[in-house]
Amino acid sequence: MKPTDRIFTALDTTDVQVAVSLARDLAGYVGGVKVGKEFFTANGQDGVRQVSGVGMPVFIDLKWHDIPNTVAGAVRASLALKPAIVNVHAAGGPAMLRAASDAAAEAGSERPLVLAITVLTSLDDDDLRAIGVGSNVTAQVVRLAKLAQDNGIDGVVCSAHEIEALREACGRDFKLLVPGIRPTWAATGDQKRVMTPADAVARGADYLVIGRPITGADDPVDAAKRIADELA
Ligand code: C5P
User: Fold this and answer.
1) Which residues of 219-232 are buried (b: 16+ CB within 10 A; e: fewer)?
2) Is the pTM of this model over 0.90?
3) 31 and 84 in contact (C-beta within 8 Å)?
4) Which of 114, 46, 34, 31 has the alpha carbon at shortest distance from 80?
5) Residue 155: phi, psi to the nearest 5?
6) What's the rounded Cα separation, in Å, for the pair 26 and 225?
7) Which residue ranges have their beta carbon within 6 Å of ligand 1?
8) Distance, CA 121 to ligand 1 centroid (Å)?
9) Mutation pick for ligand 1 pocket among 209, 212, 215, 227 (CB with most ligand atoms within 8 Å)
10) pLDDT for 191-206, tens place per residue?
C-alpha cells in the first residue's frame, strides 16, 4: 500500500455537499474517508451513498454497542453500503464481538474490517474508577483489545501512545487505526495527546484518521499532499 492509503479523512459535518466535495477533492491524495455519528444521524444511508459515490473506501464510524443480535443487525445493514471499515465497542463483550465479526463475514470477499473501540481517549483512570473499572487505562485497553482479537475482530482504534503496548499484546497482524494525529504545522485543537503522522506510522500504526488538519486547512488538498510528503 502507498503511504497515503493509510489515511482516512474524517468528514465531521452534517452537510452532504461539503462532505462530497471534500471527498472529491481528496480522492487520490488520501486512502479513504470516515463518516461518523454526526454525518450519519443527519443524512443516513443515502448520505453515505453520496459520499461513497466518489469512489473512495469509506469507514463508517458508528461505534455500535448493544446486545449481540442488534449489533449483528446493524453490521448486516451497513453491508449494503460496502464499507471498508466499521466498528463496535469491545466493552459489548465476547458474544457481541463475535456476532459483529460473523455478520461482517456475510459480505464474503467484500467483508469490511471490523475494528473495536477499547477505552475512549476522553476517559482517564479516574473516569474508569467512576464507572466501576478497577484497572488503569492502559491495562484496560490491552485487555479489551485481546478480547476483541479472540472474538474475530480485526483490530482496534487506539491512541498513538498505545501502539507499542498493543503490538506487543496482539501481534503484527492486528490492525491499529489511530486518530489524534497532528502534523507539526497543524493546530492541536481539543486533542490532548497527539502524534505526527510519520511518528505514528513509524511506531506501527496501520491506518491514521486525520480530520481538521486536512478538512480545516485553507487548502485541504495541499494539506494532504504535505502529509503525504512527510510519510514518504
Ligand atoms: O479533526 P481530528 O483530526 O481531531 O478528527 C479526529 C476524528 O477521529 C474525529 O472524527 C473523532 O471523532 C475521531 N476520534 C478521535 N479520538 C478517538 C476516537 C475517534 O479523535 N479516540
Assistant:
1) ebbebbebbbebbe
2) yes
3) no
4) 46
5) 175, -170
6) 9
7) 10, 12, 36, 120-121, 157, 179-180, 191, 209-212
8) 9
9) 209
10) 888 999 999 999 999 9
